[in-house]
Amino acid sequence: MNENTPAEKISGENITAAAPLLQADRLTRRFGGLTAVGNLSLDLRIGELHAVIGTNGAGKSTLINMLSGETAPTAGTIRLDGNDVTNWPQHARARAGIGRSYQRTTIFPSFTAFENCRLAAQAHAQKPWRLWQAAGSCEHSTGVAGRVLDIAGLAGAAGKIAGSLSHGQKRQLEIAMCLATDPRVLLLDEPLAGMGAEESERMLSLLERLRQSHGVLLVEHDMDAVFRVADKITVMVNGLVIASDTPEKIRANREVQVAYLGEH
Q1: Which of 18, 46, 100, 180 is the most buried (most CB within 10 A)?
Q2: Cα 78 to Cα 88, 98, 132, 186, 230, distances in angstroms
Q3: Do residues 36 and 239 touch, judged by C-beta distance below 8 A?
Q4: Degrees (nearest 5) of the Cα angle 183, 212, 86?
Q5: Per-residue pLDDT tens for 70-100?
Q6: Are 204 and 229 spatial neighbours (Cβ–Cβ below 8 Å)?
Q7: Tell me, what DSSP letter sits at residue 117?
Q8: pTM assigned to the model
Q9: Count of CB atoms within 10 A of residue 12's CB?
Q10: CB of 162 within 8 A of CB of 108?
């Protein structure tokens, strides 16, 4: 396969279960004289939740933007199933299995939760030859919408207008819409932001379920949540990685304690 040629779905038949699904190798992004992300490398595997933490401006969202294809790296390589996707556009990476959420919700507030998910499913599996078919009669997209709402814990809110949902439910809906695109990699940018305790618990339970069948990269400021659910934590300061290890070793890392956790 030409490394610059998008595919509808990359085959992982020759990839072992232990091999990384998504790899970033010496990834760098510069904006003029500012290095937002410098020489960063990380791996992500199915069944793993890898959290990225750091203060504001550390480069976390820039990292997700590069992995998803929204921002081109200045240097470095991104591989999915061992295939170089560095130069693939965002829509090609999405079709190959990379899904993402944003810091701000990107739902359609005037549509129902079900319609939001059905639209996401239709956008992923487009069938232009069925131009005159009513959207509601598409068995594939309606089936996907019902399934992902159930996974996200929103089956009971399927008929509700999205804009009327609580903040936590809107974040759950955004993840459900992401799941409707059939991703294997989930890049989640602060999904717990602004949530109360009860909503956070629901989101953490959802993340626990999702990690079983996906590779999950989580950017989050809630340290209690991160240390509770993460298998691995990467710590960024000023665009650079200062540590990447298990939660236990990150908590005990003196440089992390001083630079990020506020200890002296």
Answers
A1: 180
A2: 10, 12, 39, 15, 22
A3: yes
A4: 35
A5: 999 999 999 999 999 999 999 999 999 999 9
A6: yes
A7: H
A8: 0.86
A9: 17
A10: yes
Phi, psi of 10 (to 5 degrees): -80, 135
Which domains are assigned to the chain? 19-97+184-264 (3.40.50.300), 106-182 (no CATH)
Q: How many CB atoms lie within 10 A of CB 216?
A: 26
C-alpha separations of 108 from 49, 119, 161, 177, 204 in Å:
28, 10, 9, 11, 24
- As given in the structure block, the two tokens for residue 13 are 């038949």
**What residues are paired with 244 via a beta bridge?**
234
Average confidence (pLDDT) over 238-256: 94
Nearest to 68 by CA among 97, 44, 41: 97
Please, is 70 exposed, middle or buried when counting C-beta atoms within 10 Å of its C-beta (0-12, 13-18, 19+)? middle
Per the CB < 8 A criterion, the answer to whether 74 and 62 are in contact is: no
- Residue type for position 81: D
**DSSP one-letter code for 5:** S
Tokens of 238: 């000023």
Q: Looking at this protein, which amino acid is placed at residue 239?
A: G
